[in-house]
Amino acid sequence: MPKDTITPADEQKIVAAIKDAEMQTSGEIRVHIESNCEIDVLDRATEVFAELHMHQTEQRNGVLFYIAIEDHQFAVIGDAGINASVPDHFWEDITEEVIKHFKQKKYAEGLARGIRMAGEQLQAHFPYNRQSDINELSDDISFGD
């Protein structure tokens, strides 16, 4: 079902935003979309974070954008390295921006904007180094049921 909501063009827009953001930071960004979230959204996002092995980045600087489309649930979470570095309002600002677009059913635009915001913010704490940076996690969107 999530594949019906996110068109191939939407997917391209989201993946392009991930690639753009990751050119500014060594942080690793993933997007996971599924239909429903049966438990607390932050708990489910944490499960998906582990399932995608996002905690295995060298600097512990993975960020997950999690969406349960039909349940209208959204969470953005980061690994320990990020949480130790970013200001308290970091996640709230991104969440507010993404949800503003989601309310207008502009899912791809909301995700792309939030992803780029994350990249801009993470640049200060995890700068991109062209010589040493490797893409540790896939930029592709992962889909659940």
TrEMBL record:
Quote the Gene3D superfamilies the UniProt record gives.
3.10.310.50
Which InterPro entries has this protein been placed in? TPM_dom
List, alphabetically, the PANTHER family matched.
BLL7265 PROTEIN, UPF0603 PROTEIN YGCG
Domain TPM: residue ranges: 4-120
Any idea what this protein is called? TPM domain-containing protein
Q: Name one Pfam family in it.
A: TPM_phosphatase
Q: Which domain of life is it from?
A: Bacteria
